[in-house]
Specification:
- The chain has 138 residues and is α+β, with helices and mostly antiparallel strands.
- The chain has one domain: YjbQ-like (Jelly Rolls, Sandwich).
- The protein is built from three helices and eight strands.
- Strands 1-8-3-5-6 form a five-stranded antiparallel sheet, covered by helices on one side. Strands 2-7-4 form a three-stranded antiparallel sheet.
């Protein structure tokens, strides 16, 4: 069995963002030369997420609106976590959107359903964060 590991780095200009990373993962898969196996992709920071969904801007705005209703950023004083930092809402948003995805690999391609793509969700941006890509198989 072969194993491949790579870190992808992101730094957004805004506090929250949704970045399509499907092409970067496909480049990792090609580089790995693995034909049959599994790809794990996970955020390495507790205020970021990796998830699979549709690449549609209206849906991304719906995520933003829905998450902000569930865990509004302000007022910062509403959260016990906030003190030195003001990112409690980002921790909660990440919990809802998830930490990682696992994608099956068949004949050197990801087994996606219709419209599925992979996204990095940033909930406390403006600093460098990383995503781990681990592919195992034959």
């Amino acid at each position: 069995m072969k194993s491949y590991r790579k870190e992808l780095w992101f730094e957004t200009n805004q506090r929250r963002a949704y970045i399509n990373i499907t092409d970067q993962l496909e480049a990792c898969l090609k580089e790995s030369r693995i034909q049959e196996g599994l790809c794990l992709c996970n955020a390495m920071h507790i205020t970021a997420s990796v998830f699979i969904n549709d690449n549609e801007s209206g849906l991304h705005q719906d995520f933003e609106t829905w998450l902000e209703r569930l865990a509004p950023e302000k007022p910062h004083s509403q959260y016990r976590h906030n003190g030195f930092e003001d990112n409690a809402d980002a921790h909660l948003k990440r919990q809802v959107m998830g930490r990682e995805v696992v994608i099956a690999v068949t004949e050197g391609h990801f087994d996606f359903g219709p419209w599925e793509q992979v996204f990095y969700g940033e909930f406390d941006g403006k600093r460098k964060k990383r995503v781990l890509v681990k592919i195992i198989g034959e």
